[in-house]
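To close the section, here is one more complete example, presented without commentary so you can practise reading it yourself. The ligand is adenosine-3',5'-cyclic-monophosphate.
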Amino acid sequence: MANNRTFTMIKPDAFGAGNSGAILKMIEEAGFKIVAMKATKLSPEMAGKFYEVHSERPFYAALCAYMSSGPILPVILEKDNAVEDFRKLIGATNPADAAEGTIRKIFATSIEANAVHGSDSDENAAIEGNFFFSQFERVL
Ligand code: CMP
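Output:
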């Protein structure tokens, strides 16, 4: 399975704006298969756990508050070269720097409310997918 799965979350800004369907359409049209997906809402504690790697960063508290402010859509995706191809599809973290046609360029409103998360490595994709989903919640 190495190299063929990644993890994403549609974040509270995009979910709340009703952009989940349009974003999933772009993801599927780019060749990604949905392995697992659900709508859920993080507590501030769970958001803190998910983003623990950023706990020393100045934006950590705001990020945890934001990520627990509304519903999200965590998704495991499958495709060859999934992590790299997905990061190209979503664009830079800050939508001001994101390339034209990328998901963040189209849907994100700020570096914090940046529409979607995308794993930065195969290892983190597995860790992040396991954070939200058991093996029984995966269809592939
Ligand atoms: P994400 O890819 O989910 O990973 C960490 C998140 O922290 C990032 O997207 C941004 O939404 C958020 N964030 C908020 N402020 C910053 C910042 N100054 N630099 C990087 N990430 C930030």
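Once you have examined the tokens, check your reading against these statements. Helices lie at 12-16, 20-29, 44-50, 60-67, 82-90, 103-107, 122-132. DSSP finds seven helices and four strands in the chain.
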